[in-house]
Amino acid sequence: MEAMSEYWLEDIETASRVNLERIQLEKLKKIIAYVEIHSEFYKKKFRENKVSSLKIQSLKDLCSFPLTSREEIVKDQRENSRLGSLMCTSFDEPGQTIGMTGVRFSATGEPIRVILSIEDAASQGRLGARGLICAGVERKDYLYIADFPQFNLLYMHLGLGSINLGSTSILVGMERGERNVHTYTPRFPPSSFYISPTYSKFVTRLLKDAKMRYPIHAVLGWSEPGYSLPSWKERFRGMWGEVSVSSKITICDVYGLVELGLLGFECINEMGLHGFEDAYIYEIINPKTGDILKPGNEGELVITHLEREGMPLIRYRTGDITSIQYEPCNCGRTHLRLMGIKGRLNQGIKVSGQTIFQSNIEEALGSFKGYSGDFNATTNGSEELSQLDINIFQGETSKQFHKELEDGCSKKLGVPVAIHLKAKEDLAIFTHRSQKVFNTKDWDLLKKEADKQLRAEA
Amino acid sequence: MFDNDRRYWDPRIELMSLKEIKIFQERKMRQLVEYVYERSPFYRKKFDKVGLKPKHVKTLRDINRIPLLDKYEIRESFEKSVSEGKRPFAEFMTVAEELAVTIHCTSGTTGTPTTVPFLESELTAKGFIATGDSAARQFWAAGLRPGDILAHMWNLGGAMVGGGNHIIGKGACIPELFLTVIPCHVGNTEKTLKLLMDVKTTGICCTPSYASYMPELAKKMGIDPKKDLHIKSIITGGEPGPASVPGLRDKLKEMWGAEIFDMYGAPGTGLDYECECHKGFHIQCDSTLIQIVDPKTGEELPYGEFGSIVGTSLGTAAFPWLRFNTEDQGSMTEELCECGRTHPRILSVPGRWDDMIKIKGFQLHPNSIEKVVGSTKGCTGEFLIILEKDEKLTDHVYIKVEYQPDVEDVKRLHQYLEHAIRVVITLKADLEMVPKGTLERYVMKKQRVIDNRTKDKKEKFDEATKLRSAKYFD
Description:
The structure holds 2 protein chains of 2 kinds.
Chain A: H1 10-13, H2 17-38, H3 40-49, H4 70-79, E1 96-100, E2 113-116, H5 118-134, E3 142-146, H6 153-165, E4 168-171, H7 177-183, E5 192-195, H8 197-209, E6 218-221, H9 230-241, E7 250-257, E8 261-266, E9 273-275, E10 280-285, E11 299-305, E12 316-322, E13 324-325, E14 337-338, E15 343-344, E16 349-351, E17 354-356, H10 358-366, E18 375-379, E19 388-392, H11 399-413, E20 417-421, E21 437-439, H12 443-457
Parallel strand pairs in A: 3-4, 3-5, 5-6, 6-7, 18-21, 19-20
Antiparallel strand pairs in A: 1-2, 7-8, 8-9, 9-14, 10-11, 11-12, 12-15, 13-14, 16-17, 18-19
Helix pairs in contact in A: 2-3, 5-6, 9-10, 10-11
Chain B: H1 11-14, H2 18-39, H3 41-49, H4 71-83, E1 100-105, E2 115-119, H5 120-124, H6 133-141, E3 149-152, E4 180-183, H7 189-199, E5 203-206, H8 208-221, E6 233-236, H9 248-256, E7 259-266, E8 270-273, E9 281-282, E10 288-293, E11 307-313, E12 324-333, E13 345-347, E14 357-359, E15 362-364, H10 366-375, E16 379-389, E17 395-403, H11 410-425, E18 430-435, E19 449-451, H12 455-469
Parallel strand pairs in B: 3-4, 3-5, 5-6, 6-7, 16-19, 17-18
Antiparallel strand pairs in B: 1-2, 7-8, 9-13, 10-11, 11-12, 12-13, 14-15, 16-17
Helix pairs in contact in B: 2-3, 8-9, 10-11
């Protein structure tokens, strides 16, 4: 039998669908009316599309509202000074926080600036606590939060979540891992980690070299593909198992965007990411037509804020590909689940009619036991390729294994694959967070970023 | 609720008379002593050793009977607890350690960083360092008002400089802090500058060296900090800043076109801030008690005399600081400040006692050289002290000083400086003038001294330069 985990807010987390939808509808009406009054951006947009809060009778009416894209916000913020016409609060309000997206990589386009009010931060803190409990973090735990802190509101939400939960958080950031491992871990034996898949490789190696073993039982990470892929889960479990003394380690994926907040946490059953339906409305659309897709189908995730004062976003296109499921999980939570984040829409490679994402390649390669874990795949923009070229670093390899990898990948991905063995210097290998699929023109930028990440550890 | 024209954040507290302050402090002191004696095994042992009971501590003078606390004692207590299989703070804390929700660190100026746990209630409570009322008081005195945006440029992870992480706690989202805060972190400076420009940030809180590094980078990017940015106040802290380094305030003012405020903070001393008069650091006497003691004998010195700063955080706390010796040096005055605030002030914190170098039996304070170099026209303010031992095992001091590109007569400047430095350090030092930009700039904590006198230390330095040359910033 699978273990039942504790809840943070049992009434909400296990609410029936009818009740959940009632809560959502109430909050939706409020938030649409709120942005109509306070946000110039939406005032204009709604008028153009002839929609208003008065027309909302049921949740289905939301689909008549226009979608909001990242580019629109960037344009708005470029034209209007400060935080653009999206901002609903005034700077006179005390205790607000400003964050920014896209700090880790400039390759993902122009950044968006975001503002949170006190209440927003508190609400995210509550979601953080809920998510941490969901992922199996306990009150007596020492939780190490290793994320990049600059302008990163998610880092703050997690810290707040841990404070609400009552576990002891140590915000180590993402620098000088070696120093942190030697100064903090002997004093405060870590029992849970919030760490990116890429960085966890680095940290487990440090712990292993120092011959340190701790009662680590929960490892959470962000939306970088890795923690939600079954084959990689086992790989990471093995990696953490070598430095942990506890018998069971849960590897949980966490999904969140700076402009939106925390969006999903996996529970200890590791069966997809639990959403927070009382705080957001999740929709899956066909990225080309904008039509809403039925549950179970893959498409672009669209989010509507239900609890936000600073900068609420209505039907915001995240650009992330995923699918949703409404069946309740074994842990008893009734909110929908996101079945793994496949990748960013603009970061896929088109190969003979199919779009291949980083997660697809990771999954295909990850199932080979002898595979080392580092690869690069490049595109030339929107041009469709006839074959997928993957560069990997593999040390000494037999020809047979090379062939095995190539064939296996072709079979799993359903497109022709060519695997090239490369030296380490010819690949962009990251320490903190990986971007393994990219446009060839971004190569210099990424290589620089990879160097920077490695240097920060020195 | 806010009257933005008012001069003080909280006039009731800030304009209290000295007598009232004393009564207030005495009452809180008695509470604290009773509380720690009852609940912290560490302090109980410390008191019992000298045969002190809480009932003996009645007036402010009586607290001198409590022995001083230093960071080594705290570290020892941690290690003892760990070796006994308990949680590290088990001995020290006044409440069950499981209640701690987050652990913060000091910057570790003098070696291993000191770690401090916090409870949830402390992160939200008024008066907590850097989050609540005391931070609001400081930023208000620095001329920031509701509607202003503060860029918080402390390391938010890794080497958590005291205060830096509080922002992640509940610091950024408490009503007492009337500002909008940006968690900027350190590094990635180009993006930070761009964001500062885009959102029209009006205040910056960072180290003095980072404040002097940013405008240089901005100029390279084609941004004029005076025109393109809208900074009106810069609050610096974490290392000897504008209050103790002459010339630095004017230099920063010139670079940014903003008012520069210094601050001083160490465990137990709260946040001591400068007002618009820039005449010393106002102590927040309602939450801290500061004493100046003789560094050798540990005896309390009267107002006006120079010694080590000892801090006590008043009121009940989970992690009590009772007579903590910060090893920083300074003096105190109770004269009324021109700004009208009544609380006593600390006058200049030039550096730590353990920054001091012993050479040929003399004490060499890098800060005294900093003073000379900072106030001499034609110097950039950057310098480096190198200590060497020759074959005869005699110590030698070499000092490298950077000069501005527009200096014509370098030789004359050299002569002048040689004399001026000789006067302050009473030692013969070989001086070398180097052009601007030669000495590496360390943005976080400036490295002023390289000690090559022992081989072991030399290796350490080589290692450090290797890391440094990997350019930590950008």
